[in-house]
## 1
Amino acid sequence: MDRKKHACLIYEFLSEQGGLEREIITHANFLKESGYEVTILTCYLDKNILKLLPFDNLKIETLGKFNTGIESLDMALCFLGLNNIKKYNPDFFLSYSYPSNFLIRNKKTKKVNYINHFPHFLYEENKTEWASSTQGVKRKISLVFNLFLGNFLKKLDRKLVHKNDLNFTNSEFTKKRMDSLYKINSIVSYPPLDKAFKPSKNNIKERFIFSSSRIIPDKKYELLIDSMKYMKNKLPLYLAGTVNENYKEKLIALANKNKVDIKFLGRLNTQEIIDYYTAAEVFAFPTPGEDFGLVPAESMACGTPCVVWGDGAGPTEQVVDKVTGYHADPYKIEDFASKLDLVIDGKMKHKNKNKILKQANKFFYGEIKKDFLKELKSNKIIS
């Protein structure tokens, strides 16, 4: 009997509810449906995330020889060599970060890298803000390494990227930047939408503006709240996602100052977030220069138009200006406000419903899967 082929997907921590985690899930399902045994490897697993994201029927294993339950410590022990990576010999690895590339650096099997962005702790301009923009201290610890070993780590990063047999990037915007930084020719594979994203039949009888992501400083939600003071449609703002508590207090104070009614929904499961996407008047995505940002596509898949910055970043590859939403002049908050009003006053959600859903289809599971597997085959990663 032929041995079942095996793929290992690796990311150093699974503790946050973001687009990257959804990418891992859908890529795992792509491969399972193609006949592969799939194992997701991580140094730290927060089991609460399994209740919020559809990791159903996916095999997840922690790499650490010692699982302390402390995220930063478990990750540090993994990187210091106290891990079980030696026991894994799949047909190929699919990694999602610089630290993941580091963990598999000595493996002789084929390696595929899915690049969402450059390693922020090495290349981010505002490293201090970035380090404060997530739960735990892992980003702050990485800055200490950069302080003392930055040049060495940059060289190692480039070396590890070049050791990969195939490098994917998540958008044309990211490809341009990564190809320039690493001197590679990456392949664009958009993050795929989960099959579950479609207009909900559940009815939320409220009118509101919606946004969803990790609610952290580098997502720049203050730009959205500042813009809303210029809107003539005084709707409340609902925010869903993991929230940085200090940042939350700052946003509440800013909302009070601007007389914006704000509501934090917390971390929602997949069905709950679909309900809010569907019910919203408009989806607002205020993050500048986002590499891709899957949430606009998720919103459109639920029939709701989006307003994003027209800065040429990933969201502009999703939202068709004046058709499925608007591109606001970067980074003019008055124009962002006027675009939100245009969506609402022009009843774009109802008038352009079919066009909005059709645009979202470009990012749906089946289409992305077909192209993703095609590239793996053409690069002789799978047969």
## 2
Amino acid sequence: MNTFNPRHSAWWYAGIILSLLLATTASAGTKAAPAPSSSIFHICPDALDHSSSSIRSDDGRQTITVKLDGVRCAIDFRLEGRPQFNDDFTDLTSLSSGGFLRLDVKDDGERRQLEIEPGRDGLSRTWKVNGHEQPYDDAARAWFAAFLVELDRRTAVGVDYRLPVLLRKGGVSAVLDETGKMPGDYARSVYYSKLGDARQLSGDDVVRILDQATSLKSSDYYASELLKHVGTTINDAKVRSAKLRLIQSMSSDYYRAESVKQIAGSGAETQALIDAVATIESDYYRSESTAAILANPSLTEGDLLAIVKLTAPARSDYYRSEMLRRVLAHRAATDAVRRAVVDATDGMSSYYREEVEKASARR
């Protein structure tokens, strides 16, 4: 059994609110009975426009409330106290004295209510379907288990429970099977990060994580964060290639540039880095990225000639001249490189062309 850790309270709070604002209660199975599925937000997106949430802490007693109301669906969630869940995060196992969980879900004419409170002999559960109290049986347990699992898949609120179980059952493969079912970047990013903390990852493991993030079209922000935290100490050609694939999947010039700068010193193949920079449209970020590549003292004449070609699309004479002068300043600059740099000034204003020519003459 695991105990809720206050160190992760920010994830807990933000996770519940985010999930209930964005999630659907998806189908999931248990050994007891198949879990029902819900399309509550697919059929009722207007609920997102009528929502409220609050988080309060009073002398250590925490209260979380979330309400959403739509024409055909609604969720009313309230949790107070300090909860404990089972190892696979499919059931609540205890609550601190005076605590409770109340969940009221209306889904296209169906209403399910669950109230859990601490009792003399454990937790007391009251389960209602369409206003009628019913035994908290296998079907009810399966419904609540599905709710919690889907909650975790969208918020990672149960990562400290579920990740160790997944690793015991199937190692990194089991974790990646689970992250592949997560519809959002946030939960996956938490699992990726925690996975790196819990297990020594091999180069192949890192490649699989990066390629999953690429195939699932992770947002540029989460992709860049992944590059900062996963596989940073592994100097492996396959890992470097996977990182570049992830960079090339980005759409933001800012994050592409930041990611190129992040891995430029890791031994990544220069031509692959150049190919990644070639996808950057912004003159500023292209200039910043080429500067990161040029910081490598072991570049060859061929590398510098390829970087000169990167300057051609620049619309700004200032940034084009800046990139060309940096090429000239590199220790590997040869006469062939200097000629290519001067040729690349064609079409530039006389002032910036002369600045580059002066830099070339000084070499």
